Amino acid sequence: MIRRVLAQCTVSDLPRAEKWYTVLFGRRPDARPMPGLLEWHLDDAFGLQVWSEPERAGRSTVVFEETDLDAAAAKAAKAGIAHDGPLPGGGARILPLADPDGNRVVFSGT
């Protein structure tokens, strides 16, 4: 039985990525399980790993369902994360963001 999911983004510069994801989530990583790996535990059943693997950096996509997409967009803008605002997508709306390596971090919601 699967009990937990950790999505993963691969990055080229872990300290730079840590700063960006810390701003995105409004807090520092919850764990550093091994060298080159950061984890944000966003709930008991899911989270995000940020993994330093320069040769694969920038090829990841993660999607988070958000209860208030407009608030998420405002929070990202206030934190200095550039975006074009919520857009139509997949029968709902999406807020596509990109980390410094170009990984796609997409929030979806209404």
In short:
With 110 residues, this protein is of the alpha/beta class.
Structure description:
- The chain is an alpha/beta fold and 110 residues long.
- It has one domain: 2,3-Dihydroxybiphenyl 1,2-Dioxygenase, domain 1 (Roll), CATH 3.10.180.10.
- Helix content is 20%, strand content 40%.
- It contains two helices and eight strands.
- The protein has helices at 14-25, 69-78; strands at residues 5-11, 31-34, 37-41, 46-52, 61-65, 87-89, 92-98, 104-109.
- A four-stranded mixed beta sheet has the order 1-4-3-2, with helices on one face. A four-stranded mixed beta sheet has the order 5-8-7-6, with helices on one face.
- The longest helix has 12 residues, at 14-25.
- The protein is globular.
Structural descriptors:
110 residues, 2,3-Dihydroxybiphenyl 1,2-Dioxygenase, domain 1, globular, Glyas_Bleomycin-R_OHBP_Dase, VOC_core, VOC domain-containing protein
Low-confidence stretches: none
Could you tell me the CATH topology label.
2,3-Dihydroxybiphenyl 1,2-Dioxygenase, domain 1
Instruction: Characterize the main sheet.
Output: 4 strands, mixed
What structural class do you assign from the helix and strand content? Answer: alpha/beta
Helix content: 10-25%
CATH class: Alpha Beta
Which term fits the overall shape? Answer: globular
Rg calculated over all Cα atoms = 14 Å
Strand/helix succession: EHEEEEHEEE
| Beta strands, count | 8
> For the largest beta sheet, what order do the strands appear in spatially?
1-4-3-2
Mean pLDDT: 96
Strand content: 35-45%
**Distance N terminus to C terminus?**
31 Å
Relevant CATH superfamily = 2,3-Dihydroxybiphenyl 1,2-Dioxygenase, domain 1
Number of helices: 2
| Domains (count) | 1
CATH architecture level-2 label: Roll
Protein name: VOC domain-containing protein
InterPro entries: Glyas_Bleomycin-R_OHBP_Dase, VOC_core
Domain VOC: 3-110
Organism: Amycolatopsis rubida
